[in-house]
Amino acid sequence: MSAFTPLQKHYAVNLTTTQAQTTAVFLFVGFGAQAGGMAFGDLTSAALVPVTPDIVVAPLISSDFDALDLLDRLSALNYRGRLRLVSPKLPNRQIVLRELRSVAFRAGIAIELTDAA
Fold this sequence. Notes:
Helix content is 32%, strand content 26%. The protein is built from 4 helices and 5 strands; from the N terminus they run αββαβαβαβ. α3 (67-76) runs parallel beside α4 (93-107). It has a single domain (6-115), classed as 3-Layer(aba) Sandwich (Rossmann fold). The chain has a 5-stranded mixed β-sheet. It is α/β, with parallel strands linked by helices.
């Protein structure tokens, strides 16, 4: 029997690094069911509390939401952690990052912007 609740087992990934001996719980939002993530519409306090993610990973823009929508939702759910956004290569990445960080700062959320592979 796994120590994870079904929600954690389905939505969260534990990564352990042997050097630092730390564990981070990632919550993937908006990447589709095949990626094992959570749909934006399913992101509620009932879904977020049992997982308690250290890092939320999501696309910058998807068909259902964008990063500003996600920041609003996470802020409303009192999430205070890191948000890693995955995006295609942007022509002016710093402008996008500056705007997102201004909104995230007020919510107590740290933003990272990562280029998609």
